Amino acid sequence: MVLHQETFQLFAQWITFLWQALPPKLQPTLLELLFGAMISRTGHITSAIMCIRRKLHWNSYFKAIERGRFSWLALARQWLRLLIQLFQIKELILTLDDFITVRASKKAPSVGLHHDHAQRSNRPHFLWGQLRLSLGIICKKDSRVACFPLLLRLMRTTGNTNKLKAATFLMNLLHKHIPVNMAVKVLIDAWFMRAPLVLELIRQGAVAIGQARKDTALYLQPVIPQKKTRGRPPKYGQKLPQAHILQHYPQHEMKLQAYGKLRTFQFHCLAAKVRFLKGHLCKIVWSRFLDDHDHWTKWHLLICTDKNLSPQDIITTYALRWWTEPMFNELKNLFGLINAWQQTRQVLARWTMLLSLAYSLPRLLSLWLGSVKGEKFFSIPWRSNRPVTAGWIADAITHYFYGFPIRCLWNQTERKLQPPKQRFYDQLDQTG
User: Fold this and answer.
1) Which residues share a beta bridge with 262?
2) Cβ(410)–Cβ(51) below 8 Å
3) What tens digit of pLDDT does each residue of 316-338 get?
4) C-alpha dihedral (153, 158, 163, 168), degrees to nearest 10
5) CA 260 to chain CA mean position, Å
6) What is the rounded radius of gyration, in angstroms, for the C-alpha atoms of the chain?
């Protein structure tokens, strides 16, 4: 079985570009840990080291994560640059959300009791664990869509525990590194649709699209009196409760591509002032759709801070937020974030960044290859005519690189990852 050279060359180019954000001395060591994380998928550094043919002492890998002079933020920004260049992104679509990783120990960094917004019937409403805030990016190629993690911030249980401030902080970290004049849309749910965050996004020039509470105070623009009257001019016009909008504004029905398939939507739309946004004029969309059982869902209120955006674009763009859920599930359960354990927040943040890249790179390769058949990447007879998937790529990486000396693939002189030479296949045959 032979590794497809062109595919690995592409993979190598991406990693080489990312590793430019790291100090040269640490590049080969962190490369070994990255491949180990992709192979083991357990979330443990020890397992990652055991999956490769290590060249250093065990302690050297732990010290690289703990004491190495590198910035996981710089690596995250380099990851953003790679995605922008690769997909030639003209409009950046970001997602803000949070998720919980359950813990049993009380000694884990920033562990505490957190409310589970999912409210599953088989789980309590409050869970003991770690709460992370996620800033992700939506990437599309042809008809395929994926969400990749950019920044993962572990929320504190003491001091600054405000998620809105933390979300604003993440956006500020990224804002300076977004190309000038690039349109930015941020997708948020009802919990994050609040003034401190949304007003900051407006100040940055970004467009916020999110679901809001059904009792959100909405108003028409005020009628300017023809004659000058005493007092301040009115800031708000007629109040617009849900019942009034659904009764007096025209209802539209349209088929839109959303939530993984073509669905039938009904919606009402208008421009209105939003009270909690200090009267900012937004595009308001009340929408519902036919679910997989041909039942209408409940009406949902969507608010877009760009009043010129069409209701169809608002609905389909907000629906892209759905891709964060499989990302959270796979990152936690398939790539071991649920097991990631370090003694301090800083070390855990570094290891989490490597784990997120270990998840993202196979996913990115599957998205980029698109409809390329599996026989050109990893020869499995019964799946040779099917497009490659991220899981398939992860399995192929495990097959090719388990027990392999990853360090020999790194050219320290040119500081790049090289495709394996013939000795790679000789060693592969020796290891089985």
Assistant:
1) 257
2) no
3) 999 999 999 999 999 999 999 99
4) -70
5) 17
6) 24
Task: Give the total residue count for the chain.
Answer: 432
CB 314 within 8 A of CB 308: no
Q: Is 400 left (phi over 0), alpha (psi -120 to 50) or beta?
A: alpha
pLDDT of residue 373: 61
Strands 280-289, 207-212: pairing is: unpaired
CA distances 322 to 77, 145, 291, 316, 343, Å, are 24, 10, 15, 11, 33
What is residue 385's three-state secondary structure?
coil
pTM above 0.70, yes or no: yes
Query: DSSP labels for 272-328?
Result: EEEGGGTTEEEEEEEEEEB-TTS-BPPPEEEEES-TTS-HHHHHHHHHGGGGHHHHH
Encoding tokens for residue 159? 């001091």
What domains does the chain contain, in order, with CATH numbers?
5-14+23-70+343-431 (no CATH), 74-213+240-327 (3.90.350.10)
pLDDT in tens, 334-362: 999 999 888 889 999 999 999 999 999 99
CB of 263 within 8 A of CB of 289?
yes
Q: Which residues make Cβ contacts (< 8 Å) with residue 266, sequence separation at least 6?
A: 251, 252, 253, 287, 288, 289, 296
Task: Name which of 235-249, 364-378, 395-409 the model is least confident about.
Answer: 364-378
Q: Which helix (H) or strand (E) holds 422?
A: helix 422-431
Say if residues 187 and 398 touch (Cβ distance below 8 Å). Answer: no
Alpha-carbon distance 193 to 187, whole Å? 9
- The amino acid sitting at 128 is W
| Phi, psi (rounded to 5 degrees) for 303 | -120, 130
Tokens linked to 195: 């003034």
| C-beta atoms surrounding 93 within 10 Å | 22
Residue with tokens 């042809």: 142
Q: What is the DSSP string of 164-206?
A: HHHHHHHHHHHHTTSPTT-EEEEEE-TTT-SHHHHHHHHHHT-
Contacts of 254 (CB under 8 A, 6+ apart): 264, 265, 267, 312
Judge whether 358 and 37 are in contact, CB under 8 Å: yes
Q: Is the pLDDT higher at 431 or at 124?
A: 124
Q: What is the largest CA-CA distance in the chain?
A: 92
* CB distance 9 to 393 below 8 Å: no
d(CA 340, CA 21) in angstroms, rounded, equals: 23
Angle between helices 345-369 and 72-87 (to 10 degrees): 10
Mean pLDDT confidence for 302-327: 96
